[in-house]
């Protein structure tokens, strides 16, 4: 049965055209759940007249259009890329030069890639930073090492996801002087990506000019096993970087895999098994690889110079060397000493609070914790910031206190929304006015610079008698928590599609913070109370009081001993080791998404389950309709597409992995939720 059709000819733009193309007896084959073709993917980047690719659970077939019609070439899994990666001008994606085709059993999976330790990438910190991988996992697989001998093969665990018909694991890279696509692909990343994939990722294949210090996305080559491979006992695929003295037999021996399965996975045969250096070969594995497979090879011959006359250089910043050293140490040792100290501090804090404040009943669901509150610093308003108010006034309005008094009827109880937030009307527009104490300069400086529809908009500020008043756009439908934890219902209900749209909005806002602010910022307090809904039920991420910049380099952790946030949403590496990265927000987002599907607060979920994964295991394992019914928010009355629920639960499972390296970047989550929303809207329209 045909599962997926991926069409790479840009004169086929609709599913109906594809259905007509693959007609039986003159009757077009439908595309959908009850048809032979389950899904259609159309790649608009392909050349006209070429690259018609049919992918199913048994493998990939390719069809080239000619005057006589379509000729089908059968194949298995994906074709080996051969030497195409060294020819940047070659754009024929009927090979796997853009990536391995998404014909696996799952669209997301655990995969592995390899990388050879060469200067300046010979340390755990440097390699994990370059490849956006979890250093603690790399360390475990590679004998708990933090440094590697030159040319040592290092195995890297990655989360592999399907984008635009190709599997990939994304990292980012800052362009250095003399870099070209070929230098980046074959020198820096050693062939684990291709120049064609880099050009395609950037979105302008004709633009070969790269600007120094420009940040680009690098798609690393990975793949998920097909159904046929899973039936053969294959559970993982590893993208192995071919070395100069490699052949298929030696690679099979090194990793103790069946040579026939290895050849089959790469569309090679015993008579056609030539492989080339600086290319990737898929190695099918039954179990995760271990250090016993990582061998040291002799140094390879120098790479041929790129087509330009300049010489590629790789520099490695020393400015964050101390952070890298600390991070590598925690990756290897688990931060044991730090955990003991931090644990003692947390224990003392909780014990002190309990003595000071008698138990007044049940603990609030979204209780927050904090340690080492340097209050003497927080109450001091930055003189430099006060002096900069004239600059701020150019981008946001500075209100007088009298204006805010009139807007809120002198901060009357009838204007009080919650806590210290008041509703006011200024020039006919509703505003949320938040009274704050302490130094809010960092929050204001960030909010005045950001501009994204999914981040709450700061329209003005006021300072009066030691208090700050921040004036925000007013989200008329209030906090998300009011809608999904509403036991009395009171007419407050969110449909399946609304929930997915809200989740996508939140992820998009976080993606802006993580990827489009300089430096990157972490929100650190994503929870249902800090997500506001406007009149159209579009989400706005709010409450930037805990936001901080990530001083460490891309995909690295920085350290803190100031643990703040909402219980239940805090990522393990942050709560236990004080490690800060954008993956904190990814974890919290996963918890948020779980609450949105179940309609239950995380504190309640933890009361019934030792681990959050227990909440959705039944759904993930397809245990039946009853398991799904018990999992989902009962207020939805079973009005949701079960297949999409399973898909979104997979996203949750990835986001709340204990190891941050196993969590996807929020950018990947945005892409996955975009797919989920599109399918949800199609499902919803079919009900009408």
UniProtKB/TrEMBL annotation:
Residues 327-677 form the Protein kinase domain. Keywords: ATP-binding, Cell membrane, Disulfide bond, Membrane, Nucleotide-binding, Signal, Transmembrane, Transmembrane helix. It holds the Pfam family LysM3_LYK4_5. GO terms for biological process: response to other organism. Residues 238-283 form the LysM domain. Residues 289-316 are annotated as: Disordered. It is a single-pass membrane protein. It is found in: Cell membrane. GO terms for cellular component: plasma membrane. One of its GO terms (molecular function) is protein kinase activity. The chain crosses the membrane at residues 325-352. Residues 297-307 have a biased composition (Pro residues). This is Uncharacterized protein. The lineage of its organism: Eukaryota, Viridiplantae, Streptophyta, Embryophyta, Tracheophyta.
């Amino acid at each position: 049965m045909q599962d997926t059709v991926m069409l790479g000819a840009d004169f086929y733009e609709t599913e109906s055209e594809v259905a007509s193309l693959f007609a039986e007896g003159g009757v077009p084959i439908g595309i959908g759940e009850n048809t032979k073709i389950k899904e259609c993917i159309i790649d608009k980047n392909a050349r006209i007249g070429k690259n018609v690719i049919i992918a199913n659970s048994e493998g990939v077939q390719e069809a080239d259009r000619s005057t006589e019609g379509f000729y089908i070439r059968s194949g298995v899994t994906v074709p080996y890329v051969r030497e195409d990666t060294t020819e940047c001008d070659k754009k024929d994606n009927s090979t796997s030069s853009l990536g391995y085709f998404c014909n696996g059993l799952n669209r997301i999976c655990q995969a592995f890639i390899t990388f050879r330790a060469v200067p300046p990438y010979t340390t755990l910190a440097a390699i994990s930073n370059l490849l956006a991988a979890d250093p603690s996992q790399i360390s475990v697989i590679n004998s708990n090492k933090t440094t590697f001998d030159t040319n040592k093969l290092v195995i890297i665990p990655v989360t592999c996801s399907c984008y635009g018909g190709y599997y990939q694991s994304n990292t980012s890279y800052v362009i250095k002087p003399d870099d070209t696509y070929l230098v980046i692909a074959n020198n820096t990343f050693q062939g684990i990506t291709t120049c064609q994939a880099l050009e395609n990722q950037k979105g302008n294949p004709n633009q070969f000019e790269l600007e120094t210090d420009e940040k680009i996305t690098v798609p690393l080559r990975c793949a998920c096993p097909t159904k046929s491979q899973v039936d053969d006992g294959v559970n993982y695929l590893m993208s192995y970087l071919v070395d100069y003295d490699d052949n298929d037999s030696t690679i099979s021996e090194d990793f103790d895999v069946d040579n026939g399965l290895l050849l089959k996975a790469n569309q090679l045969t015993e008579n056609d098994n030539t492989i080339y250096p600086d290319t990737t070969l898929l190695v099918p594995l039954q179990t995760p690889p271990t250090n016993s497979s990582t061998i040291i090879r002799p140094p390879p011959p120098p790479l041929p110079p790129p087509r330009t006359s300049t010489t590629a250089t790789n520099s490695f910043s020393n400015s964050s060397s101390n952070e890298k050293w600390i991070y590598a140490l925690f990756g290897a040792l688990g931060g044991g000493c730090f955990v003991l100290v931090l644990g003692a501090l947390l224990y003392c804090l909780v014990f002190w609070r309990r003595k000071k404040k008698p138990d007044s009943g049940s603990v609030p669901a979204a209780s927050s914790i904090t340690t080492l509150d340097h209050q003497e610093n927080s109450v001091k308003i930055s003189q430099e910031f006060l002096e900069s108010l004239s600059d701020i006034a150019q981008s946001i309005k500075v209100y007088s206190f009298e204006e805010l008094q009139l807007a809120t009827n002198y901060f009357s109880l009838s204007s009080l929304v919650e806590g210290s937030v008041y509703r006011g009307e200024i020039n006919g527009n509703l505003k949320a006015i938040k009274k704050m104490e302490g130094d809010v300069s960092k929050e204001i400086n960030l909010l005045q610079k950001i501009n994204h529809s999914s981040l709450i908009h700061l329209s003005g500020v006021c300072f009066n008698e030691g208090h700050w008043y921040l004036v925000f756009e007013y989200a008329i439908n209030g906090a998300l928590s009011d809608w999904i934890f509403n036991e009395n219902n009171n007419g407050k209900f969110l449909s399946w599609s609304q929930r997915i749209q809200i989740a996508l909005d939140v992820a998009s806002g976080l993606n802006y913070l993580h990827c489009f602010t300089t430096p990157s910022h972490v929100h650190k307090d994503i929870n249902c109370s800090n997500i506001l809904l406007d009149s159209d039920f579009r989400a706005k991420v709010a409450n930037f009081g805990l936001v901080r910049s990530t001083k460490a380099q891309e995909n690295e952790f920085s350290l803190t001993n100031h643990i703040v946030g909402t219980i239940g949403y805090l990522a393990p590496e942050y709560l236990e080791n004080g490690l800060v990265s954008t993956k904190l927000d990814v974890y919290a987002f996963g918890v948020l998404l779980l609450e949105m599907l179940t309609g239950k607060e995380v504190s309640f979920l933890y009361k019934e389950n030792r681990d959050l994964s227990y909440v959705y295991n039944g759904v993930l394992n397809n245990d039946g309709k009853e398991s799904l019914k018990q999992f989902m928010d009962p207020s939805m009355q079973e009005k949701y597409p079960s297949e999409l629920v399973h898909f979104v639960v997979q996203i949750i499972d990835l986001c709340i992995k204990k190891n941050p390296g196993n969590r996807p970047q929020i950018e990947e989550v945005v892409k996955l939720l975009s797919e989920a929303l599109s399918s949800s809207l199609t499902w919803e329209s079919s009900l009408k």
